[in-house]
């Protein structure tokens, strides 16, 4: 792509590259929103489970599988967000 300051001129000079880049940006935005939603949902479910302490009363030796799955998913979701941020920065520069 050529270096211009006006995005409309950029779109005119290289339409395929410009529209592909715009599609990547939209895809990154959608996936980031979905991963943030999943992250917040997992954190809220973990906090709710810990406050209610239902699994502590039923099985005091170990937490249930669903609780641990949500707990392990949090770093995975953050890793996906970091990959997306790195790809976004790669396409911008």
What's the structural blueprint in terms of helices and strands?
Blueprint lengths: L6 H7 L1 H38 L1 H5 L6 H28 L1
Give descriptors for this structure.
single chain; 93 residues; mainly alpha; 4 helices; rod-shaped; membrane; transmembrane; transmembrane helix
Give an overview of the whole structure:
Keywords: Membrane, Transmembrane, Transmembrane helix. By secondary structure, the protein is mainly α. It has one domain. The chain has helices at 7-13, 15-52, 54-58, 65-92. α2 runs antiparallel to α4. It starts with 6 loop residues before the first helix and ends with a helix. The model has no long low-confidence stretch (mean pLDDT 85).
Helix content: over 70%
Give the beta-strand count: 0
State the shape.
rod-shaped
The profile of the biggest β sheet is:
none
Given the helix and strand composition, which structural class is it?
Answer: mainly alpha
Kindly report the average pLDDT value. 85
Instruction: Give the N-to-C terminal Cα separation.
Output: 11 Å
Spell the H/E element sequence. HHHH
Any idea how many domains? 1
Q: Number of helical segments?
A: 4
| Rg (C-alpha, Å) | 21 Å
- As residue ranges, the low-confidence spans are none
Strand fraction equals under 5%
Keywords: Membrane, Transmembrane, Transmembrane helix
Transmembrane segments: 21-39, 67-92
